[in-house]
Each structure stands twice: as structure tokens, then as C-alpha cells.
Amino acid sequence: MQIPNFQDVRQAYLKIRDQVHRTPVLTSQKVNERAGGKLFFKCENFQRVGAFKFRGATHAVGELSSKQAQNGVATHSSGNHAQAVALAAKLRGIPAHIVMPENAPKVKVNAVRDYGANITFSESTQEGREATLQKVVEKTGATFIHPYDNPDIVMGQGSAAIELLEEQPELDIILAPIGGGGLMSGTAIAASGLSPETKIIGTEPEVANDAYLSFKTGERHPVQSTDTVADGLRTSLSPLTFSCIQEHVDAIYTVTEQEIVEAMRFIWERMKIIIEPSCAVPAAAIFNGEIDVQDKKAGIIITGGNIDLDKLPWQD
Q1: What is the CATH number of domain 59-144?
Q2: Any idea where the Tryptophan synthase beta chain-like PALP domain is (predicted)?
Q3: Which residue among 54, 143, 279, 296 sits deepest, i.e. has the most Cβ atoms within 10 Å of its Cβ?
Q4: High-pLDDT (> 90) share of the chain, %
């Protein structure tokens, strides 16, 4: 599978920009004071379906030939990619078959249903998801849209970083969280092409640190635990995303569960925006001193805002 280049990401952006929201870039004086530098949050929580995933799904579904799209599309996802594929398929007028783990947040399950997709539940393990998806694809003949191991997905996700750098062209650092690595890959490719001097940093939960270990050792490590509050970051890197990260990312840092929850709450309280735990991981790595932004400008991709308000992580 060929690694996309900057021109691929640029072309994807030009194709989808009329279908996706150009999300705001927000700042906060209080957050900057705590960070010691200037943070610019690219707020994909205001994207369609409430997450950056709509960018990649829109591009991937749009790139299918009429024959490929005939029987619809299928995927497995804990939530945001599921919603994104469901809406992208609906807008193209084709069916969507979504496999969701049994522990997927209720808010995300309900949203996928609202977009008219057919949902099949699976065990929460990667193996369980993939086995169930295989059965769905065999039964329906649908085209599988992988959540991240798909060049068209990676290209689409990179469009968020293009918009961020158009508004803030002189960033010293760009940070994103890493789950399967689709956003990190697209962000890194876009930033490397538009702003080669900008440092590109990935962040990850300490308990689900497969990307950190893979980056450090040069060999892909599967995620050992999915027991993190950051439900969007429970998956492992793919060969494609690992290659992109090896080529373009400068460093990866990890944060604790407590740091994630505390950073998430701080951003809710100070910026008055709803963000998922996954989004708080880059900010946590700055707040805990792992990443030094003193007197620097740092861009952070806020990945999504789909959260079950009845189960906030700081509630007992």
C-alpha cells in the first residue's frame, strides 16, 4: 500500500472542502497561561458528525467507482468513523453496514442509527470486530472502508491540518492523538509538505501505548490494553499508518488516565467546548510538562465531541 504524499492530501482536500465544515481554530488565554505557550485548537468537534472522521470517510466513499459502491459500504468502529461512514454513504445514496463493539458509547450507537445505517454488534476485541465484519461483507457484498488502513482515509484526514496551517502558518509544533494513526498520518503528511520546519508530535494513553512502543523499537506492536477512557484511541497502528508515522513524525509521548481526565475537564471549564477524552491527550502531554511549548506556537487537532453526557469521566 503506497504512502500518500502531500499532493495527494492537497487533492483530497480540494475534492471534499465543499462537503465538510471548515472548523474554527480557537484559543484561550487561561489555557495559554497554563501551557506557557500559545495553543491553537483546530476544533473538529464542530465537524459534521462531531468528529474529524467525516473528512476521511467523505473522501473514501467519494472515491469509490459506481460498481464498487453498488452494494454499499461496510466498516467496524467504536463510534466516530461509524457515524462518518454512515453519513457519507447516506449523502451518496448507498447503504452502510456498520459493525460496532458491544461497549461502544450509546451516544455514538444512536447517532449511527440516526444516519440510517445497519448496525451489527461484535465483541469489543479487534479480532471480534474483524470476524463480524467479514461475515457482514460476505453477506452484503459491501465495500470495506477501513477506519485508518486506507490511503483515501489518510488523505482526507490530512485536510484538517491544511486548514489549520492556512490560518496559523507559523506553528512550531503540531500535535494529534494516535489511535489507529489515520489522523496522525494525514496531519504529518500535510504539515511536512506545508511547513517542513514544524515539529510533528503524536500523543497516546500510557495504558494503550502501541504507537509509542512501535515508534521507539521500529517494529509494530499491537495494543495490549483497551482499558483507557480515551475510547477513540483503543486501536493499533496499521502497516500504512506506521509507515507514515515513521517517515514524518518527530516524537510520541504518553499520558496517564488521570492526566487525560484532568486536561479534558480543564478544557471544558476554560474553553466552554465539549471534547472527548481522546482530544485531551495532546493537551495533557503539554500540561504535565512532557512537551515544552514555552514561548512557542502549538497547533492541536481536537478530534471530536461525541460523548455520553450521562457518563462523564470525572463523575463517580
Answers
A1: 3.40.50.1100
A2: 17-304
A3: 279
A4: 85
